[in-house]
């Protein structure tokens, strides 16, 4: 109740602040202080509500539905704190909290820059008002009591001493299918408990807890970082609207640019933190899967980075004109679009429309919330683009500029266009499920390969080209050394790294070219003015990032390996020996220890598997051997602690994919694997799954096609067989790797041999190598560092 009161008061204050700021802009006297007090009051009440929510989580107050649904007694303090944003309601609260705090900084910033504050803060307060409505008691309120809408609580979460109360039996139900007993927590039961002097937070002893895939330390870092980026995207929108309100477009670029740089830097960092989380936790071996929810964060980031390039051109052009500068209209549109796309991202994630297309999407929140999200995004689209349409005739720059194909202005504009094109591709692919279709990751990869090449070339070339115009001979002279060095390094990568695909070689060259040019200029700047270093450092980060993608994505290799306990198996040059498993975390999980030996170096990695109480599913956590030149990634598939191996029951034969093997009077071929996207999804979700191998056997001109399966059932590995009466053979799958399978072939006519049973423990894993994946993470860190060096420079310029 107290939290809802705080949020309701905050909503009233936010609306007052918005109105008072607008009246201040319109020239009303004595309204500015009211607006400031109201905004700060709103922020204080939001902080108070957030603090109360954290307090309620830490003290296990399960009378709140949200806390019961996403918290648990056994969670560590860090995970308890992060359960704040474990569900829809809390993530909206986090977004609101961070937006409110950023608004306080923005209010101070804008108050020092002429008449900017009323215009900027009126728009910003509108955004906080919408967020406050979203967490109000009518929509996604985290302080809703658990009995408001009847909820079935597993009896294991109920304090046992109260189950003997005489009226409890009327609220107990048993699900015959799952054989689970529940207590229906309703307003009627709440009233009876109150009459008996029992509080609900005493009655409910424990919460449901977090989804096991959220039980990771990145849960404490990634969402806040992402939502800081989302919150900061509000600021360029507010600056653009402030410029449109005043019909003045000269100052806003200087004022907005530091915020755009900081916001995109943080959003980029947040996105890639999520990528590392997926890489480390989900076990599918990648950091980016073009998942619609991942994409929806990437789209506003691409638009934000595009706006930085054209804002630099407008800022530069203002030195030579009294007009509004070049690309002012473009910059206004991109600034508005960045925030609108953040809202679109929210709509995709929260409305439930991607429930069948993304493993990240929240479930359907209900028709009312769905409609409110539509109103939320519709309002800001109408406000932003309606204002541009209203001011359209004032947004033409009448200045005639010196035009040259070899100008930095044109190269920066081209870079912006390329980034927008990338955003459109991702937007189209991401939105496809809304229209009943979905695109494959192949679509994104193929479309982005040429874009990445152009970005790399522009990244380097734009720095060799001067503002306004560049002499061709000067450009050739300036670029000769960089091009030669880049070619030499590219040849070295091709020879040493084994890069052989032509498009990958071109991409490698373009990235190295960008790296060399930026590094050369950055080296010169280090000796002079360090404040100009930001852009070059960020571009070096991008170049390293793309080189990391070339290595880790295009040349990653993987194979499935069956590790019999204490028997070395070779994979990727490593002698891998499964030495047994160790119970960890109070015997709730099991670490499967693997010694990896190469030369004199021995490393131990321990992938983890366990049955989660949360969803009663097998959960798998990969282990990663981090080396500078590569990662060796071990994803567990299953464990069989008692496989009965039949020695001498059949002959083991290896079948290579696409090749025919003759066995007695038959020809056997392994044609292809059958591993569907559903199989990959089931692996990620910890469900049972099966991988198939399609084979053909030809005997006496009779052809038979069949499929053998490797199944993982509750963590145990099972293999299927096929009996060919025509060939007189029984063929059983015994192993399945990246390029071949192993089968055991037994003649049906042979006298059964004496079977010698021996019990062996077998750990099944997918092992993969990811060359130079470390460059991906190093590139991100360097890029973000560059963004913030640039912020420091642009912040000073915003006061000039």
Task: Give a topology summary.
Blueprint: H1 2-25, H2 32-58, H3 65-70, H4 77-82, H5 88-111, H6 116-134, E1 151-154, E2 172-175, E3 180-185, H7 187-195, H8 200-203, H9 222-232, H10 234-246, H11 252-281, H12 292-317, H13 328-350, H14 367-390, H15 408-431, H16 441-464, H17 472-497, H18 502-526, H19 534-554, E4 557-564, E5 569-571, E6 574-584, E7 589-598, E8 601-605, E9 608-611, E10 618-621, E11 623-626, E12 630-647, E13 651-656, E14 660-663, E15 666-674, H20 677-685, E16 689-699, E17 702-713, E18 716-719, E19 721-724, E20 729-736, E21 740-747, E22 756-771, H21 774-797
Antiparallel strand pairs: 1-3, 2-3, 4-22, 5-6, 6-7, 7-8, 7-9, 9-10, 11-12, 12-22, 13-21, 14-15, 15-16, 16-17, 17-18, 19-20, 20-21
Helix pairs in contact: 1-2, 1-6, 2-5, 5-6, 5-9, 6-10, 9-11, 10-11, 10-13, 10-14, 11-12, 11-21, 12-13, 12-15, 13-14, 15-16, 16-18, 16-19, 17-18, 18-19, 19-21
């Amino acid at each position: 109740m107290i939290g809802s009161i705080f949020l309701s008061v905050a909503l009233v204050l936010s609306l007052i602040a918005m109105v008072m700021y607008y009246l201040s802009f319109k020239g009303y006297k004595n309204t500015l202080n009211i607006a400031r007090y109201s905004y700060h009051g709103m922020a204080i009440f939001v902080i108070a509500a957030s603090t109360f929510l954290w307090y309620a989580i830490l003290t296990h107050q399960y009378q709140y539905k949200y806390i019961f649904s996403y918290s648990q007694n056994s969670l560590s303090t860090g995970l308890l704190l992060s359960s704040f944003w474990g569900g829809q309601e809390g993530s909206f609260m986090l977004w609101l909290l961070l937006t409110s705090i950023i608004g306080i900084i923005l209010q101070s910033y804008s108050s020092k820059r002429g008449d900017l504050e009323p215009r900027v803060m009126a728009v910003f307060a509108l955004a906080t008002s919408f967020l406050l409505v979203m967490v109000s008691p009518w929509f996604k309120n985290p302080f809703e009591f658990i009995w408001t809408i009847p909820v079935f609580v597993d009896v294991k979460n109920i304090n046992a001493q109260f189950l003997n109360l005489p009226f409890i039996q009327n609220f107990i139900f048993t699900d015959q299918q799952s054989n689970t007993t529940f207590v229906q927590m309703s307003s009627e039961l709440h009233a009876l408990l109150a009459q008996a002097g029992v509080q609900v937070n005493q009655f409910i002893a424990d919460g449901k807890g977090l989804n096991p895939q959220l039980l990771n330390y990145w849960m404490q870092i990634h969402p806040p970082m992402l939502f800081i980026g989302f919150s900061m995207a509000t600021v360029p929108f507010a600056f653009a609207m402030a410029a449109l309100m005043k019909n003045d477009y000269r100052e806003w670029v200087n004022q907005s640019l530091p915020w755009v740089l900081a916001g995109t830097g943080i959003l980029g960092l947040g996105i890639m933190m999520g990528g590392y989380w997926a890489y480390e936790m989900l076990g599918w071996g990648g950091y980016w899967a073009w998942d619609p929810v991942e994409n929806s964060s990437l789209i506003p980031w691409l638009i934000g980075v595009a706006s930085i390039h054209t804002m630099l051109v407008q800022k530069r052009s203002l030195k030579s004109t009294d007009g509004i500068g070049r690309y002012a209209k473009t910059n206004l549109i991109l600034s508005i679009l960045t925030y609108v796309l953040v809202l679109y991202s929210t709509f995709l994630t929260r409305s439930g429309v991607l429930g069948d297309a993304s493993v990240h999407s929240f479930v359907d929140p209900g028709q009312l919330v769905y409609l409110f999200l539509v109103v939320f995004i519709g309002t800001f689209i109408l406000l932003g683009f309606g204002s541009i349409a209203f001011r359209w005739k004032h947004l033409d720059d009448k200045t005639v500029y010196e035009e040259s194909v070899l100008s930095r202005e044109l190269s920066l504009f081209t870079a912006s266009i390329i980034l927008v094109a990338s955003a459109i591709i991702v937007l189209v692919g991401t939105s496809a499920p809304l229209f009943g279709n979905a695109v494959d990751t192949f679509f994104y990869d193929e479309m982005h390969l040429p874009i990445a090449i152009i970005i790399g070339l522009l990244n380097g070339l734009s720095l060799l080209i001067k503002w306004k115009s560049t002499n061709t001979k000067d450009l050739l002279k300036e670029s000769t050394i960089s091009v030669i060095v880049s070619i030499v390094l590219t040849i070295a990568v091709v020879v040493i790294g084994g890069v052989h695909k032509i498009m990958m070689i071109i991409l490698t060259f373009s990235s190295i070219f960008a790296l060399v040019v930026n590094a050369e200029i950055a080296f010169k700047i280090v000796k002079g003015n360090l404040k100009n270093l930001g852009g070059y450092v960020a571009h070096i980060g991008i170049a390293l990032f793309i080189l990391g993608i070339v290595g880790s994505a295009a040349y990653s290799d993987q194979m499935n390996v069956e590790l019999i306990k204490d028997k070395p198996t070779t994979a990727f040059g490593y002698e891998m020996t499964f030495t047994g498993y160790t119970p960890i975390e109070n015997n709730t999980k099991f670490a499967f220890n693997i010694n990896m030996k190469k030369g004199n170096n021995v490393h131990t990695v321990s992938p983890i598997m366990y049955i989660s109480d949360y969803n009663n599913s097998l959960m798998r956590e990969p282990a990663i051997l981090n080396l500078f030149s590569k990662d060796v990634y071990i994803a567990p598939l299953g464990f069989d602690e008692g496989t009965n191996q039949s020695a001498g029951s059949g002959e083991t034969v290896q079948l290579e994919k696409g090749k025919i093997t003759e066995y007695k009077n038959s020809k056997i071929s392994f044609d292809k694997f059958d591993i569907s996207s559903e199989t990959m999804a089931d692996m990620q979700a910890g469900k049972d799954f099966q991988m198939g191998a399609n084979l053909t056997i030809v005997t006496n001109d009779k052809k038979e096609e069949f499929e053998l399966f490797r199944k993982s059932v509750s963590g145990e590995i099972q293999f299927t067989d096929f009996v060919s009466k025509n060939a007189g053979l029984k063929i059983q799958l015994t192993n399945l790797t990246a390029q071949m399978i192993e089968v055991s072939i037994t003649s049906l006519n042979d006298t059964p041999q004496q079977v010698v049973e021996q019990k062996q423990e077998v750990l099944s894993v997918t092992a993969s190598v990811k060359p130079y994946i470390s460059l991906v993470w190093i590139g991100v860190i360097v890029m973000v560092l560059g963004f913030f060096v640039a912020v420091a420079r642009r912040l000073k310029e915003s006061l000039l």
